[in-house]
Amino acid sequence: MKKIPNHVAIIMDGNGRWAKGRGLPRIAGHKVGADSLKECVKVCAEIGVKYLTVYAFSTENWARPKDEVSFLMGLLADTIDREVESLNKNNVCLRFLGRLDQFSDQLNGKMRASMDKLSKNTGLNLNVMVNYGGRAEIVDAVNEWVKEEEGRGEGKLITEEKISSHLYTKDIPDPDLLIRTASEMRISNFLLWQIAYAEIYVTDVFWPDFRRNELSKAIESYGSRERRFGKTSEQID
């Protein structure tokens, strides 16, 4: 690989279609998809990616069938119980980001306890976006800024830097590479602010089949691109 991105973000899509194509219930796709995430975490840690951010459950996903939502909540809880020791052993720092208070007290407690346990680790930073929406994040950031400014006696203009400093990802660098599986050409309300200059890679592969080789293809594609950030090629050279 010519160049390793510092931060990889992934929209993990296609679990339901993967299962349907095999005559299985949607939850089967979610189960196998959890294994894909485990492998991607391992690969990113091996090759030197510093941050991996995955879209696990959106603010809009509550509208899915109740049985599926209930299964996803259980899968999240079980995955925390099953994987936290392995993540700790491999020096992974874990964060759940989103509107966490809308989960049950039990699940909220599991997430916060696992984050606390892994907070001192210095290897891969794994960010799991749950009950997350890009628009919701920006709204929450602006509201936090407004609260801070109340009572200071004079109005102040909001800036890009001030919004960035109040996002869920305020101490995390913006993604270099955004991967979307299952061929959909949209970003689905994911990291709307942060992916302004991310390189985008879309694959036809469904998330349950997205393993080491597919991740390597995405990173190789990233390495072949010229990132200009609004400048010309001549200026970059």
TrEMBL record:
Ligand binding (Mg(2+)): 13, 199
Biological processes per GO annotation: polyprenol biosynthetic process
Residues in coiled coil: none
Enzyme Commission numbers on file: 2.5.1.-
GO cellular component terms attached to this protein's record: cytosol
Residues annotated as signal peptide: none
Residues annotated to bind substrate: 14-18, 26, 30, 58-60, 62, 64, 180, 186-188
GO molecular function, a single term: ditrans,polycis-undecaprenyl-diphosphate synthase [(2E,6E)-farnesyl-diphosphate specific] activity
Keywords associated with the record: Magnesium, Metal-binding, Transferase
Cofactors named for this entry: Mg(2+)
SUPFAM superfamilies per record: Undecaprenyl diphosphate synthase
InterPro entries in the cross-refs: UPP_synth-like, UPP_synth-like_sf
Cofactor info, note text: Binds 2 magnesium ions per subunit.
Catalytic-site annotation from UniProt: 13, 61 (proton acceptor)
Family recorded in the similarity comment: Belongs to the UPP synthase family.
Subunit details: Homodimer.
Function as written in the Swiss-Prot or TrEMBL entry: Catalyzes the condensation of isopentenyl diphosphate (IPP) with allylic pyrophosphates generating different type of terpenoids.
HAMAP family: ISPT (MF_01139)
Descriptive protein name: Isoprenyl transferase
